[in-house]
Amino acid sequence: MRIGTSPAGVSGYDPAVRRAWAAARGVALTAVIAGGSTALAAAAPTPPGNPDGHVAVPAAARAVDSSHPTRVVGRGTPASCTSKAVVAAVAAGGIITFDCGPDPVTIRMTATAKVRNTSPRVVIDGGGTVALSGGAARRILYMNTCDRRQVWTTSHCDDQATPQLVVQNLTFAAGNATGQRADGGGGGAIFARGGRVRVLDSRFVRNRCDPTGPDVGGAAMRVLDQFRDRPVYIVRSTFGGAPGQGGVCSNGGALSSIGVSWVVLNSLMTHNRAIGRGANPARAGTPGGGSGGAIYTDGNRFTVRIDGSLIRDNTAREGGGAVFFVSNDRTGTMRIERSKLLHNPSAGFETRGLPGIFFLGAARPTVVASTLR
């Protein structure tokens, strides 16, 4: 059985269609990480993302049709779906799906899967039944256009159109980027620099990165240098989702970036934590960090748009229990629409009148049809 998105574009359908599609598969994927081991449990169909989010998804952010893959990981059994096969498929590029049998499967990664910069596009579609686990020991997926080891294709490596990385219908569990500072750090599940990246209909559970430091973050995702400053799209995806399942890092328990714009649509972020101490720049006598329980953004001109999403029960030891946003030259902007940001305590500081948010930018964030409490 080939596991991929079928029929074409099904993840772009409305929630009722997606639920029916998941039910037809007969199983939903829930990653349960405990004591460094990974297990899978069948459950009622619960697609990722905010169940109350119904915002239209623009063409640039939609799923890729994976019904005719370039390459398939596995030969019909769980045993055939190996870390080695995933690493090889990602390095080769193209549209990647999985054939691991009819039941949910976790692939424990023994090495980080790395995108080669010669690949125009890499699409990884888990079909809703595949989890990639870092085993609490390693980063899961890596793309870096400025890494010569992945082939340096241009002298302008920080602003190139490719590779385009698309992740859809996949779970990332127990990724760990602790100590990976040479490339900028962070990104326990996904580190991406350059090209373009978008994530759809995916789950991120119990990922980690360095517990301290003023400029490291993104337990789930760390993104730098997108082509022509175009945004990273996060669509119908879950970060955490239940107590004990959230990401943990010095900053940005879910997402982190420098100078990168984000569009977060119909997504769910809960129980993520920023646990550093001393903020940025670090206070004297502290290691720094602790901001952006769910989202940490820094840089100059960039934007953040949150629409149709629920951000709840995230915490920051310093500022921004939900979102930390600092535009150093005060040109950045933020917009929150049709969303709820609830109970995201900032133990240190936040912007008056914006519960769970610390914001420095061009103007006060635009808040439309949303609840901040």
Structure description:
This protein has 373 residues and is mainly beta. It starts with 14 loop residues before the first helix and ends with a strand. Residues 1-44 have low confidence and may be disordered. It has helices at residues 15-25, 83-92, and strands at residues 30-34, 37-41, 71-73, 94-98, 105-108, 113-114, 121-125, 130-133, 141-144, 164-168, 171-173, 190-193, 196-200, 203-205, 221-224, 232-235, 238-240, 248-249, 255-258, 262-265, 268-270, 273-274, 295-299, 303-307, 310-312, 315-316, 323-327, 333-337, 340-342, 357-360, 366-368, 371-372. The protein has one domain (10-372). The protein is built from two helices and 32 strands. β3, α2 and β4 form a beta-alpha-beta unit. Strands 3-4-7-10-13-16-20-24-28-31 form a ten-stranded parallel beta sheet, covered by helices on one side. The protein has a nine-stranded parallel beta sheet with strand order 5-8-11-14-17-21-25-29-32, with no helix packed on it. An eight-stranded parallel beta sheet has the order 6-9-12-15-19-23-27-30.
In short:
The protein has 373 residues and is mainly beta. The protein is built from 2 helices and 32 strands. Mean pLDDT is 90; it is low at 1-44.
**What is the number of strand segments?**
32
Count up the domains: 1
DSSP strand content: 25-35%
Rg estimate, integer Å: 19 Å
DSSP helix fraction = under 10%
Mean pLDDT over all positions = 90
Let me know the largest β-sheet.
10 strands, parallel
- General form: globular
- List the uncertain runs: 1-44
State the separation between the terminal residues, measured CA to CA.
46 Å
Largest sheet strand order: 3-4-7-10-13-16-20-24-28-31
**Number of helical segments?**
2
Class of secondary structure makeup: mainly beta
